[in-house]
Amino acid sequence: MIVTKKCAVCGYHFNFDDTLTTNMYLSPNSEGAKLYFDLWHFNVEKCPNCGYASKDVSTCLNNSIVKDAKYDMISKNKIVKTLNSARPNKLEHYLKASLYYKSVNDKLNESLCNLQASDLIYGEMLYWKDYILDDSANTMNAVQNKKEYEELKTFADELYVHAIAGLKEYLKENPSDVDHIILLAGTLSDGNKMQKIQAVNMLNKLKTVKGLTLNQKKMIKFLLEMIRA
After folding, report:
1. Of 23, 20, 59, 61, residue with least CA distance to 43
2. Neighbouring residues of 164: CB distance < 8 A, sequence distance ≥ 6
3. Residues 94, 53: Cα–Cα separation, whole Å
4. Ramachandran region of residue 11, left (φ > 0), alpha (ψ -120 to 50) or beta?
5. Dihedral of the CA atoms 157, 64, 1, 180 (nearest 10)?
6. What's the pTM?
7. pLDDT, tens digit (0-9, with 9 covering 90-100), for 105-162
8. Kind and range of the H or E element at 45?
């Protein structure tokens, strides 16, 4: 759906399509998966005039963020440029929004943006495996593509680690937020063996909590089945 917004930072009016696009490799394929996916996936809006990015550019708690040198450097980030050269994506949007939320001490949205940025890169890595890495006709290109692929993975892993750390900090202050405990468990389930064990323990403990909603029960069931598959 086309939406019109006025940027809270520079006053620019612009139209954009707010339909949430998902990578075909990562799209949910069950009700529990869809509920979990919707728990942490959302669009980030970016003003085409000043570059301000957040979940809603019509509001801003730190107008000076667009003047921050780190914020400006995101568009020049090597990974951002590499992925954009392959095909357009919204990595820059999520990275800028994450930095904005960090500047206003919003740990949850900072983490969610980092998580979506890493998710986006992991999805693009699958695309690279299928369509870019197979370059046997040109050894030099094959080596360069593999190097870029490893750089993508390193950056995605760093964002993933930051997202987990941020979620843990947020939950220390909000220990009764069941939805985001589920999200943390789901995020950990994509990690190493020890993190998977932590995820299972968290989810099994959550199953005993009174007052869970039907949707929360479905998400817990989905994640436990996915981990044990």
Report:
1. 20
2. 111, 184, 187, 188, 191
3. 8
4. left
5. 40
6. 0.89
7. 999 999 999 999 999 998 888 777 665 555 554 544 555 677 888 889 999 999 999 9
8. strand 45-46
